[in-house]
Every structure is written in C-alpha cells, then in structure tokens.
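Run log // design_07
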C-alpha cells in the first residue's frame, strides 16, 4: 500500500502510537476515555462559573487582596466550596483520560500520580476551611493551618505534575506527523 498524502482524506486522526498493542486495561476501558475527558472539561467549566458567581455574590471580599479560599467560608461559601470538589473531580477524570488515551511512550506516570494527588489536595482544602485573616497573617486555627499547608502543597504538585505531563509531548510529536497517516503494509 502507498502512504497517504496531503491530498488524500485522512483515515484517522488518532496517533499511530495508539495502534500499538494496548494493555488489557486500556483495551477494556478505552470507551471511558471520552467520558473522562468530558467530565474533566465540564468540571473546569463549573469551576470557572462558580468562581465568577462567588466573586459576584460575596462582595465583602476584595478580589485583589483577599485569599481565594476565603470565598469558601460564609453563607455563600458552598458556591466556591463546590468549586473545590469540581476541581478534584476534574483532576481525577483528567488523570484517567490520560492513562486511557495517551500512549505509554508519551505518558508521564509520575505526572499523572501528582495530578491525582492535586485532586486529593482539593478535597482536603474543601474539608478544612481557611481562616478569614488579613493578607499575610498566619492562620490561627488547626483547620486554617491544614488548609494553608495543603494549598501550598497542591500548588507545588500541580506545577511539577503539569511540567512532567507536558514534557512528554515532544516525545509523542517526534513520532507522529498529523499530516501523513502511515498505513500498515499489507
């Protein structure tokens, strides 16, 4: 068989690396990957919506000088608190989609584990609300200390995990030219 050219309609937009033999887990649960990706995108959209609404209804906080966790405290705190949970669900769903969709050559297992840990930090931050303090003041309660330390841990894990996950993309691109789909020889 001949290779496709740019003039030929593509037969598939999937990476040729996905044609590699799949593990039993990836083969069995591959259909869930679209659901996982949709859940992750929906959770992100919910987070953005909840954050905007929280800023609108909670006028006692200043967008520039108060901590973002302050929005999860008070009578309207459930709005931003639910955004923490949506973020956790989004992290878990994105991790599952990466495992199910990404070829092993392009997958950073450590990055995915860190993404799951970031999801756990969102649940912990939801469970332990922050102390309402002036900017720069240290927390005064045990829950406030847990919230602050966990938030710092989550931010660090997210930064390292996202770098690890995205750093594998060049390895994938090196083996995949989206304009030329190579067909197996007959």
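design_07 sequence
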């Amino acid at each position: 068989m001949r290779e496709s050219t740019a003039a030929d309609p593509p037969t598939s937009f999937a990476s040729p690396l996905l044609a590699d033999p799949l593990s039993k887990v990836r083969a069995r649960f591959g259909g869930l990957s679209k659901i996982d990706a949709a859940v992750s995108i929906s959770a992100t959209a919910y987070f953005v919506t909840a954050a905007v609404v929280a800023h609108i209804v909670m006028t006692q906080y200043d967008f520039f000088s108060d901590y973002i966790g302050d929005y999860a405290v008070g009578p309207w705190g459930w709005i931003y608190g639910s955004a923490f949970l949506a973020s956790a669900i989004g992290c878990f769903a994105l991790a599952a989609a990466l495992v199910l969709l990404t070829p092993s050559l392009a997958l950073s297992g450590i990055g995915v584990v860190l993404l799951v840990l970031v999801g756990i930090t969102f649940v912990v931050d939801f469970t332990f609300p922050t102390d309402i303090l002036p900017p720069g003041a240290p927390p005064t309660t045990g829950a406030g200390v847990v919230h602050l330390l966990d938030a710092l841990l989550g931010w660090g894990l997210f930064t390292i995990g996202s770098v690890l996950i995205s750093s594998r993309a060049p390895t994938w691109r090196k083996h995949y030219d989206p304009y030329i789909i190579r067909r197996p020889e007959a």
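The chain has one domain: 29-133+140-174.
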